[in-house]
């Protein structure tokens, strides 16, 4: 296992502990840069949304754990953030959670001769995401979804 993978796993473990204490969910941990000068980006989430206070709480908690465990060699920058308004939908539960929201989906296989769709999540049944595009409903099997994000609505 590569050194960055080992660091990421350990940071994920510590970030999970920090997010539980803060009452939010761990969404993702990313490492960028070179070992010795890494950026550690921890993304947190909550059903009620994430605010700056949530990020500060997790950052303080995680900084303390990182100081004790010291899993990141050399210097690093810690960033704690939310998934954002155009957050990725990574599993079938995310589609259920954001039912009614506008979504952008890219599929691995063509449906109606296309692989890119923007529509509102109407419902999720078993392993099919049903979106409304205009007045038409389209069922997209979850297993062929390559990438999906919420669309920003102003």
Structure description:
The chain has 154 residues and is of the alpha+beta class. It has two domains: 79 residues, GMP Synthetase, Chain A, domain 3 (2-Layer Sandwich); 59 residues, Roll (SH3 type barrels), CATH 2.30.30.100. Helices cover 29% and strands 44% of the residues. The chain is built from three helices and eight strands. The strands form two sheets. A five-stranded antiparallel β-sheet has the order 7-6-5-4-8. A three-stranded mixed β-sheet has the order 1-2-3. Helix 1 crosses helix 2. The termini are far apart. The relative contact order is 0.14. The model has no long low-confidence stretch (mean pLDDT 95).
Question: Could you give a quick summary of the protein structure above?
Answer:
The chain is α+β, with helices and mostly antiparallel strands.
